[in-house]
Amino acid sequence: MNTDAWDYDHFKKAFFARTGLNLDCYKDKQMERRIKQIMQREKKPCFKSFFTHLSSQAQMMDRFRQYLTINTSEFFRDSKIFKCLEEDVLPQLLKNYPRGLKVWSAGCSMGAEPLSIAILLHRLHALRRAEIIATDIDGEVLKEAQKGLFNQQYLSKVPEGLRQRYFEAEGPHYRVREALRKAVIYRKHNLLTDRPIPGRHLILCRNVFIYFKAETQQFLLEGFSNNLQPGGFLVIGAAEYISDPGRYSLQRYQNTIFRKQ
Fold first, then answer.
1. pLDDT tens digits along 11-24
2. Nearest to 148 by CA among 118, 121, 193, 120
3. What residue numbers bound the domain in which 28 lies?
């Protein structure tokens, strides 16, 4: 291959060899557009010069990986889904699995999603009998998640009563109270290469696999379903869609919530 004129495929191969992150699993047009945007900002006219630029500093490469893995989140994102979880799904699961509820937040970013679940479980007087595991590919963002410190934009959907009960103001930021922080176990995990977390009753993977190609989405859904207990629930993002849930032993329960048959 002519190394003087890299195309996007050459960049993907070099990036995978360097980082282990396989960009072939992502939708090409979306990902290439995002990469070219940052190339323009860094004033690098071609993929080869951009890769050389990234490779020159470990910190630069780490920042670029964080940019690609799309760390966006907020508490109670999509309020209708969390209302259904609090009033319907979680009470069912707590009744059916009284010895302990096992939750997995996959692609948890800064931790707002698993902490939202922790708040709901606390309101249902069930936090102590739940195991909440939150995973993300980005180790640096997980370190921040463990601090439980958020700025105002993460709390825009949190009612004032819940904000006063579950957060403590620290200057312009808010820190989640210690009991909730301790209830979430954070782990570094690559959805594409690491084994799924087994034996779950509730799996949330929201606004993550929308960025992946169809075959990668199928791979992830099979893994989620295989590690979901019968009667358990899978929750995806509002902009995501499962065309044939029965293929994965799933049945649409409500909007973007599916139940394992």
1. 999 998 988 888 88
2. 118
3. 8-68
